[in-house]
Each structure stands twice: as structure tokens, then as C-alpha cells.
Amino acid sequence: MIEVHDLKKTYGTGVNETPALKGVTFKIADGEFVAIMGPSGSGKSTLMHILGALDRPTSGTYHLDNQDVSQLSENELADIRKNKIGFVFQSYNLLPRATVIRNVMLPLIYAGVAEDQRRAKAEAALRAVALPADRWNHLSNQLSGGQMQRVAIARALVNDPKLILADEPTGNLDTQTGEIVLSTFRELNLKEGHTIVLITHERDVAEHADRIIHVRDGVVTEDVRK
Questions:
Q1: Which of 5, 177, 181, 180 is nearest to 88 (CA)?
Q2: Which of 136, 181, 218, 221 could form a disulfide with 43 if both were Cys (CB 3.0 to 4.6 A apart)?
Q3: Is 222:37 a contact under the CB 8 Å cutoff?
Q4: Helix, strand, coil shares of the chain as percentages rounded to 5?
Q5: For residues 1-19, b (16+ Cβ closer than 10 Å) or e, as one string?
Q6: How far from 183 is each of 134, 150, 191, CA to CA, in Å?
Q7: What is the CATH number of the domain that holds 125?
Q8: How many domains does the chain contain in total?
């Protein structure tokens, strides 16, 4: 599913060069649940942006689903994001004055999916994350933090992406609600077979994954399968 080899990323030029990644190599198989863990400044956010086709490496290669995305154009990267990657962010990134169902349908609207199919796919995604149907027509700003994050996960699922990339998805949640959200990822991985990469700086969050890739100072320091 994912293969990165000798991935390097440098910001700036000349005396102002700052290396963020210094030669990262690993593989993630289809259907794995992996956490990439590291402190602030470790390079994990840079790595997340490259894995999410939001940025390109300075050197090295990144293959997603057998496609080399390392040197694609901006338009080609946008197609990868639209068709192969579902994003879940710490801040949810929902439209506050749109209903839950409308928020989940948005990627399908951009993809040109017919209206009747959009509704069916959005409802299936919301059922997959166990959000009660009586919340589907609520505005997203009328939901709790945990419910909003479930909506964000449903939106990430709705295009049936090859990869779900979750960036600090419990960062704005209390411990109990965070556990519920992480359990949702676990269910999606076990029952639906989704490949999930979780970016976090918290060990107790990373422990929910089956494998933890530790990043520090731009390199992989440890890769542990549980």
C-alpha cells in the first residue's frame, strides 16, 4: 500500500537549509493500522504531508498503491488526494452551518457523483462510524466533539479511499471521547479492512495501533509491531 524509500525533505536553501526528513524508509501493507509517533519537531508532520500528497519530498520515493507519487504535478497530487486518501484532522474541518449528511456528501459532490448515490454513500459511511441517525440532519456545530470527529471520519470514508490518514484525531477531545474515536478506527480496520495511518505525539494514542513507527529528528528510530 505505502512504500517510502530514503525520503528526504529540506526547507530553505543555502545557509538557511533546514532538514526535516533525513532519509526515511518503511513499508505499510494493505489493511495495516499503523501509528507514526514523535514529539514536536520530529518530522512527523512533514512526513504526514508527503504521505497525504499535500507536499513532495526533496529526494527519495513514495509509492502509494503501486503508483510513484513523489514527483507528480499539483493537479496530479490533487487527484491522488481526491481518489485515494481520506483525511481526518484534529480540528474536524467541518462546515459549521451545514448538516451532518451534507458535510459527509461534500467529497462526492466535488467528485461529480449523482445525487441519489451521494445520499446512499453518505448514510452508509455514517452507519459505519455508528453515528445515530437522529443526528444526521443536525448542523455540525450542534454536535459534541466526539460526534463531530465521527462525522469527519465518515467524510474520510465516503469515497472508499485506499488510505485513511488521521492527524492527531483525538487532540481536541477528552480522554473518554478520544477512546471512543480510536475504537471507531479499530472497528473500521478490523471489520472493513481499511488501511489507517495515525499521526500522534501521544504514546497512549499510538498504542491503539498494531504497529508504531517512531520518528525523531527526521529519522525513523524504531519500528515496533505489537
A1: 181
A2: 218
A3: no
A4: 40, 30, 30
A5: bbbbeebebbeeeeeeeeb
A6: 21, 11, 12
A7: 3.40.50.300
A8: 1
pLDDT tens, position by position, for the chain (226 residues)?
999 999 999 998 887 889 999 999 999 999 999 999 999 989 999 999 999 999 999 999 999 999 999 888 899 998 899 889 999 988 888 999 999 999 999 999 888 888 889 999 999 999 999 899 999 999 999 999 999 999 999 999 998 888 999 999 998 888 998 999 899 899 889 888 899 999 999 999 999 999 999 999 999 999 999 8
- Work out the angle at residue 70's Cα, subtended by the Cα atoms of residues 69 and 75, and round it to the nearest 5 degrees: 60
Alpha-carbon gap, residue 1 to 195, rounded angstroms: 8
Amino acid making up residue 222: E
The domain in which residue 36 lies consists of 2-225
Torsional sign, CA 182, 88, 114, 77: negative
The count of other CB atoms within 10 Å of the CB of residue 204 is 12
Alpha-helical regions (H) of the chain:
44-51, 74-84, 100-110, 115-128, 145-157, 175-192, 203-206
What pairing do the DSSP bridges indicate for beta strands 67-68 and 18-28? unpaired
Please name the amino acid found at residue 33. F
Q: In angstroms, rounded to a whole number, what is the distance separating the alpha carbons of residues 147 and 104?
A: 13
